[in-house]
Amino acid sequence: MARLSRRTFLAATAATALVRPALAAGTPELRAAPGRAQLAPAGYGPTPVWGYDGGVPGPAIRLRQGGHVARRLVNDLPQATTVHWHGVRVANAMDGVPGLTQDAVEPGAAFDYAFSVPDAGTYWYHPHNRTWEQLARGLYGALIVDEAEGAPEVDADEVLLIDDWRFAEDATLHESFGDLHDWSHAGRLGNWVTVNGVSDWTKRVDHGARLRLRLVNTANARMFPLVLRGLSAWVVALDGQPVAAPYEAGELVLAPAQRVDLIADVTAAPGETAHVLERDRDGLLAVAEFRVEGTLRAAALPPPAALPPNPVPALGPLDDAPRTVLRMEGGAMGGMMAAMMGGQRMALRDLAGQGKVWAFNGSVDMPEAPLVEADRGTTVRIAMVNDTAFPHAMHLHGHHFRVLGPDGPGPLRDTALVDRGETAEIAFVADNPGDWALHCHMVEHAEAGMMTWLRVG
Ligand code: C2O
Ligand code: CU
Fold first, then answer.
1. What is the pLDDT of residues 272-286, one digit of tens each?
2. Is 437 in the pocket of ligand 1 (CB under 6 A)?
3. What is d(CA 336, CA 350) in angstroms, rounded to the nearest whole number?
4. Ligand 1: does its nearest atom lie under 6 Å from the Cβ of 439?
5. Which residues, by Cβ under 5 Å, contact ligand 2, an ion?
6. Ligand nearest the Cα atom of residue 132
7. Taking the CB of the first residue and of the last residue of the chain, which one, N or C, has fewer CB atoms within 10 A?
8. Mean pLDDT of the 203-219 span
């Protein structure tokens, strides 16, 4: 047999395509696989990771609102996995939660995801099995849905997937997955930040340019308090959902899994650098850099208009809505003595022996019975009481909710940060039938017990 040169290989592929046109029309693959990524600065080697299509981040999925996503997940990992399309109001069977909406996809197996996308906005995808390991190893990507109409006019539209890695000294991933100290405290916190899988994410811009920045926190557990310099910015969407009235962006706290869309005008002068910075104990650290070259516009643009609203149903009367309490318990300094697990009451030390240190309403892990059973279309209220010594980023699947504040319902979100000692009461219309997870998105906390579910009939 002749050696296969690149040319003959291409010719062979073309011929194959001719006789098998179905291949071209088939479902595109999304391969979860080990790979390498140059996460650390030059001077270090590439980091062995797990990534979609072997890279970090995985391929960006971008489509127009109302469009359809179809991907065949192929599992080339050494363990079972799924994909969850975070924040997208998908049909339940496509939600990617093992044990609730599907079985985990075993190594070597595949699963076809196909769903339509009702809302424009900034979303992302990640595994929902052993998320504490698979997300930390690099499995995530952006899912961007462009407005069907009324998209804001901008000079550039940038997605910034902000991640936190725990590196060993040689920039390999620190193998401390499953560390009970992390799990019972703030989660797996890292020591290195990347944007879109690189250490020095930089973009050239012009003074006066209007940018749309889509910031996504893809970290396991780290919260990013962010400040902007050299940019005049407005918040136009949270967790993909447009805010009713854009407001000037001060310091922004992005909890794990949260997103914020900004319209940001470059105010730094040519020759200067504008920044997205993280406020840290030690000061401000650069997250993303915008090097200003020329001048696009000398005069400031008017503030941006609101983005067109998504078709999320309006809340019904809150006084008539059934109200459920979800009490978060456990963790270090939490004082939890015991909790139910698998129908049995267990002392904390026995729970900890199984890696379970957090609870919702006195029970760890997905309970037998749903926290809430709602008829389709009803408005549901859940008061999430944080009775622990740590903040938690609470995420509801399949729906977007509003946190009820003193001034009424807040903006639509899918992930809400609930500080220690705080109660956040959420309300949403249970319009998406199926079984939906509700959990902490500090993913170690979820695995260590903070997981429940809702049934929408
Ligand atoms: Cu982003 Cu249940 O997850
Ligand atoms: Cu938590």
1. 999 999 999 889 999
2. yes
3. 12
4. yes
5. 392, 440, 442, 445
6. 1
7. N
8. 98
Q: What is the pLDDT of residue 394?
A: 98
3-state helix vs strand vs coil in the chain, percent to 5: 10, 45, 45
Q: Is the C-beta atom of 145 inside 6 A of ligand 1?
A: no
Please work out whether the CB of residue 397 comes within 6 Å of at least one atom of ligand 1: yes
Residue nearest to ligand 1 atom 1, measured at CA:
86
Q: For 150-211, give the DSSP string.
A: -PPP-SEEEEEEEEEE-B-TTSSBP--TT-HHHHHTT----SEEEETTBSS-EEEEEET-EE
Nearest to 344 by CA among 327, 367, 372, 326: 367
User: Could you say which ligand is closest to the alpha carbon of residue 436?
Assistant: 1
Output the pLDDT for position 24: 40
Distance CA 27, CA 111 (A): 11
Residue 132 host element (H or E): helix 131-134
Q: Is 31 in the pocket of ligand 1 (CB under 6 A)?
A: no
Angle at 214 between CA 213 and CA 216, to 5 degrees: 140
